[in-house]
Structure prediction request, 468 residues.
Amino acid sequence: MPTFGRWIQPLLALLRTRRGLLFAILALQALVLALGLGIVFQDVRHSVAARLQDRILEQNVRTAESLAKTMEDLSFGEAYCGSVGRERAQRMIEDLTLPAGGFVCLLDDNNKIICHPRLRQEPLLCGIDLSEMSVDRPDDSTTTIAQADRDEIIAGQARFLDRGIHYLAVKYIPSMKARIVVQQPESGLLAFGEAVASGSMLRAAGLGVIILGLTGAISATLIRRHNRVLEAINLGLEQEITVRVRESLDARHSLIIGLAKLAESRDTDTGQHLERICTYSVLLAHQLRDRFPEITDPWIDLLQLAASLHDIGKVGIPDHVLLKPGKLSPEERAIMERHPVIGAETLAAVKDRLGQDPLVDLSLLVARSHHERWDGRGYPDRIAGTEIPLAARIVSLADVYDALTSVRVYKPAFSHENATEIILAGRGTQFDPDVVDAFLRVADAFAATRDRLNPRSVQDATPARLAA
Prediction:
């Protein structure tokens, strides 16, 4: 089955192309033509063999009659070993040439061979008694040479000595007191029949190839015309679908950005926080794509949008906790740590209404798990290592870097260098080591993005409440 799968998939892919479809049509036509020619060849071969057998028997009878009359007219005299008539007959038989390996032999009055074209090469043929040689006649009767009526010509099939089946005609010559036997080996006739049938089949095959070429050309023309029509229709449909999909995506993206902005409006950062988080996440994802095969261009596009929804759950956090300028109490921290769950539940409700959607699925993972830690001491689920979704591990570092380098009500901004030191210190504890290594490779790009999109950043300070 695995071997079958390895070649069937490329074949199916080929059949989806115009060239593959044309190849399949021609292959099917060739198969049908070959099967037809095979069936016809068998029928022609049997038909030729039957007709040839009848013609050969008729020809043998005519030859036997003609030779018998010639021998009588030339007054060969009685034929027996050593007679003048026998010697003359032997020379005549040796000079005869019959088609398909045919030959003539002469039997004496006791049905023993006295003349045979190979008698000089095989002297032992002389005197062989053929009295009991059975002849199967066309009317399905059987007779032996000895039983044959001397007044009639017998014709049919017989096994001649040990030399296979022969078609023969036997006629008695009264003046010579001998029987003349005209015979054709079946092997020679079969070869002749095969040659006749093969010649006909070669002509039929040539005609089939011409027909196949013509139908192939016609099929190719029709397929091209059909494809042009389909391409025109598909182009129109693709353009319409592209417009509709773009409109749908634009509407979805607008709603997502609106939801993200709603959550951002309640936080203490009035700058371009979402744009920075998305940019940082994309920078990290590009650095990690060689390490994680699931990171593709479409996945990065989804991550860029999903990152903007990471803190959507903060819309459910009361202002006295969310906007508190000082350190949170244990009770307040417990409330703050609910925002990943609130965000995930909000997006799960959207998913229930919308159905399966890659963006919503990824956004839900990011919203719920972006505060988890590599060592398992994060929240809300206390999961660790690769149990944390990859997208959440990326957004987690991006979010912390932005929190460190941004001004909040409870702290001033850190410098890029200080933020980098803190993130490096969290490698393998708070952050995925691979993500930290990716950050170090694009640290300069992070700094450039911070300078461009975070004009409120100021000198180094000590964070009061980073994890929230």
Remarks:
- The chain has two domains: 10-191, 266-453.
- Strands lie at 103-107, 113-115, 134-136, 142-144, 154-159, 165-173, 178-185.
- The domain at 10-191 is CATH 3.30.450.20 (Beta-Lactamase).
